[in-house]
Amino acid sequence: MSRGEESISSGSGGSTVSRVSSWVRENKLKTIGTFWGTTLGSSILWNLSKPHEKLSLKLLHARVHAQGVTLMALAGAGFLEYLDRREKNNLKLAAAAQKH
C-alpha cells in the first residue's frame, strides 16, 4: 500500500467518499496530472490502433485530443480551486457567526 493509499484508508472517521475527496483536495496536481496522462495515453493508443488511417491523420487526431484533454484538466483544476475557496469562505462565515 502506498503512502497516499494509507492516508485515504486510515482517515479518521467519515465516509470513504469524504476521505477520498479530502485526499484529492490535498493532492490536486497529482490527481489532475494522473487524469491528464491517462486520458492522453489512452487517446494516443486508440488513434494508433486504427490501421486504415494515415499517420498524418493519426497525429492530427492525437494533437486535437491532447488539446481537449488539456482544457479539461485546466477546467478541473479551476473547479477544484473554486470548491476549496468556497469551502474556506463558508468556514470563515461560520466561525464569524459563532463569535457573535
UniProtKB/TrEMBL annotation:
It is found in: Mitochondrion. GO terms for cellular component: mitochondrion; respiratory chain complex. InterPro entries: Hypoxia_induced_domain (IPR007667), Rcf2 (IPR040153). Pfam families: HIG_1_N (PF04588). The keyword Transferase does not apply. Residues 1-92 form the HIG1 domain. It comes from the Eukaryota. PROSITE patterns: HIG1. GO terms for biological process: mitochondrial respiratory chain complex IV assembly. PANTHER family: RESPIRATORY SUPERCOMPLEX FACTOR 2, MITOCHONDRIAL. This is HIG1 domain-containing protein.
